[in-house]
Amino acid sequence: MILFGALVNGIGILVGALLGMRLHKIPERAKDTLMKGMGLCVSVLGVQMAFETQNSLVMILSICIGAALGEFWQLEEKLNQLGHWVERKIGGRSESSVSQGFVTATLIFVIGAMGIIGALDSGIRGNHEVLLTKAVMDGFVALLLSTTLGFGVALSAIPVFLYEGAIALFATQIDRLVPDALMTAMITEITSAGGIMILAIGLNLLGLTKIRVANLVPGILVAALLATGLFFL
After folding, report:
1. Where are the alpha helices (DSSP H) in the chain?
2. What are the tens digits of pLDDT across the range 124-146?
């Protein structure tokens, strides 16, 4: 089953988030400390990912162009509207909490080499080991995040499954059309640009900034396109 790894990854996130939501009664002081701890860890992870770039100009252009596109498309506002709709359906959480949990968790779980490589392994060789390992890791992170960010974290299971599932389904075609060297370059620059976004999430979790991270997301596509263009120059 090609989609097995992606499915288990999505379920792992969902289960972890639901378990974490059961811990919502922990003291506010403990929640604040946990949030700050997560913010520190996420910030360090983002910095490590950002330093993977092989071309700093690609990283800078990816973020700048991506931010311009995100602001033009008003992605953050649309996600807040989605959060408001979900809040009306489930009650008990503010739309900002739902959208923050959704954006934060989705970017953490999607960005990086592990999801791409694992999905390609699932589609090409039927080997789900990487995604199964990622499912365990993501489930634990989802549990921690959902204690403070709530139901939005659980919603991130949907885009993670769709993203990894799409790569797995088209893995054979991707492997045939995209040279290994280009794939490596694309993953490197996507990871680097994504690292900047994850750093922004960490700073938001620490309460130091209020960066509209969702409006930076188009930078991931820009990074892939710039890496491709440089490869063929």
Report:
1. 4-21, 28-50, 56-73, 75-90, 95-110, 113-125, 129-149, 151-155, 157-169, 171-177, 180-205, 218-231
2. 999 999 999 999 999 999 998 99
